[in-house]
Amino acid sequence: MHFIIEIIIGALAGWLAGTVVRGGGFGFLGNVVLGIVGSLVSGWLFPQLGFTLGGGFVGQILFAAIGAIVVLVVIGLIKRL
Questions:
Q1: Is 18 helix (H, G, I), strand (E, B) or coil?
Q2: Cβ-proximal residues to 52 (8 Å cutoff; 6+ apart), any chain
Q3: In the list 2, 34, 45, 53, which could disulfide-bond 14, CB 3.0-4.6 Å?
């Protein structure tokens, strides 16, 4: 059940990241994968920096969306090179 919740959070986070970073989305499935990767990145990076958003479903989505936006911006920078 936890895996399904993580996929839902990743889907919402990927959609948010694709909406925030205009022209940077990869379609629905790509954005879901991006959201999951962003969730993993933010889950590792933010505790290292001592940054927390709190708990709960909304906090997890925001956390993952911020990570997905970071990943999307980095991918965009790499594509420009």
A1: helix
A2: 46
A3: 34
Greatest Cα-to-Cα distance within the chain, rounded to the nearest angstrom: 41
| 10, 32 Cβ separation under 8 angstroms | yes
Residues in the chain predicted with pLDDT less than 50, given as ranges, are: none
Are 65 and 17 within 8 A, CB to CB? Answer: yes
| pLDDT at position 48 | 87
What is the chain's length? Answer: 81
Residue 21, SS3 per DSSP = coil
Q: Is the pTM of this model over 0.85?
A: no
> What CA–CA distance (Å, rounded) separates 13 from 26?
13
Q: Say how far apart CA 61 and CA 39 lie, in whole Å.
A: 8
Query: How far is 53 from 62, CA to CA, in rounded Å?
Result: 8
